[in-house]
């Protein structure tokens, strides 16, 4: 027996069992082994000193199921202070409670009866997961496997063997559409993968994602999370914290107000606001304004506008700078405790992988206190001194900087300060001050987690829990502020909100509905993996929303004139058509039919290849909504051989006269300028040296913006308010541009109808 009091088994590389316990008892019972494995993989650092006790209980078959082990771990986390009462622990885990097969059978019977109608309707597609949970609610210590097989048996008795329809694949409609093209980055650290997410099915909305797929700790149960550091005062602080928050979730979205928000921020906004909203909590918008040089009023306004555009309302707007005084006082406290010191290394010296340790690390506390005063009072030059914390970050970086000198007036505090706190120092302290329950941030900050906990604990203040999620990157674009600025300067795009960019203002301008962006973020999930998503996945989410909200119209972008030689009506005819063919009750509009109509140039071919289903010299085609089929009689051309007119005859559509296809058309048209956008870059990763050796500016797609003059139905004019969105049948989704004037409509294309739609 080794020092941990346990039988031999190599459990896992990070296990708590010392090697000295190996090979004493030889082989152990495989069930016990499985349970020990479960124990080793679930136990958290903060209760790992109980490992010997727990393993003993497993070996004695007192903790004989994974549920009992989970209950034991739960109990220990709840009762982290004081000594463990084994009796109470066993009671909590139901040690000795026996659930008989008869009891299980009875409970399953009752539940199956209760859900009988639904089961008969859905048959084997009935989801029995919730039944299992219900049984467990009543028979807490029932064995999971036994319950599952009992349910299966009773379902079989009720439904009989599976029929052919039971075995047929689920109908297309139910399958999740537009599976995003997600590329996982090569490295995903399993052990540090923090956010448990069920990957089996995607969520469609943020609310669904946050309610069903994300399992963060409950407010006040911070200590249950992996890696959380517990101090003697933790439980008191948590109690205080719960009093203030009333046990509600409190998150924050903390952008630095020094740039424009982009699609990646949309994820941060959705995760922070979405998590709070889904759990009846609140979310603050906190401007992390600690770098005075980079801040401008316009960024503050734009950030707030975008948060609101995405549909969220901050419970409160706060500023890191509001806490400058408190942060300063805490810095003094750290110095007094010997946990921070003033350093004179130059910033170049501190850079790189393995910078030399600071020679000032051990200077007397009184000296650091005096120098910090001097820093604050403007007695030192910029770069001459910093305040550093005595701690080592995960990646080995030593003593991160807490304060630096900057002679630059601050947007809100003016000249009051010439020392400014860093992200590492400010972030966790502001989270603590605001009593944030879940500090949600992107994966890059995982390496700052220990410093986060260290600092809160060094100051003996409430310590929130940091959770990381995967950053969202979209391909075929750049999002860095500097790079976009360059694109604007060089005239490749017009401004920060040019519809070809992926800033949030640009997406709004292009007509992407906020709902679609939020759904897209939900589809991406919260996992810790780095992803580069193809914009096609975002466009698919946009189509899903616009398909339901954008009424249909007919427009022809490359018109060819068609004359109907035996037009039957006297003058133009008005046809009333539904805005949404599959849901006619949602509204209707009028279109005009006449002896001259315009069709898309590409819908006619003189020499058609096989499989072309539209108009050819010997193939008729139907005109949508008009109820007629047209057949070509002759083609008129100009001197250069271009088609100027197609002379056709019309016939009513009937059972015996059905064309292969129906095309869109416009009669009595209004002119419209239509702007068509394509990806700004030709490569998915324009910033990647290998993909684009000459830099992102060399990768611009010169065809990324085109403008064509087309025809739209005159009826559209009445409703063409700027930003109204339409689906041009068979072409795509378009929004009315504010440049629209009477007699001249302007549209921007939001997305094409299908991912691979023909380019116009
Ligand atoms: C945070 O909680 C502390 C007590 O733990 C309280 O004094 C303080 O007012 C709270 N601040 C906010 C913004 O909720
Ligand atoms: C658009 O919505 C209709 C139902 O209103 C549906 O039948 C159709 O498949 C949808 N199209 C796309 C591209 O999602
Ligand atoms: C137009 O001509 C076609 C073909 O000759 C004929 O079938 C159709 O009835 C005519 N329609 C009218 C309205 O004259
Ligand atoms: C239509 O005409 C093309 C050539 O213009 C010919 O190849 C094709 O076989 C014709 N189809 C029919 C159905 O007559
Ligand atoms: C004929 O069509 C070509 C290609 O679409 C175009 O460049 C040319 O200007 C047209 N000619 C006339 C006289 O419209
Ligand atoms: C259309 O694009 C132009 C820039 O090309 C932009 O100025 C305008 O705001 C856009 N309009 C809409 C409704 O997206």
From TrEMBL:
Provide the catalytic activity annotation.
tRNA(Gln) + L-glutamine + ATP = L-glutaminyl-tRNA(Gln) + AMP + diphosphate
User: Keyword set for this entry?
Assistant: Aminoacyl-tRNA synthetase, ATP-binding, Ligase, Nucleotide-binding, Protein biosynthesis, Signal
GO MF annotation: an example: ligase activity
Q: What class of enzyme is it?
A: ligase
Signal sequence region? 1-22
Q: What is its EC number?
A: 6.1.1.18
Is the Signal keyword given for this protein? yes
Disordered, as annotated region:
178-200
Q: Compositional bias of type Basic and acidic residues: which residue ranges?
A: 183-200
Would the keyword Disulfide bond turn up in this protein's UniProt record?
Answer: no
**Protein name according to UniProt:** glutamine--tRNA ligase
Question: What taxonomic classification does the UniProt entry list for its organism?
Answer: Eukaryota, Metazoa, Ecdysozoa, Arthropoda, Hexapoda
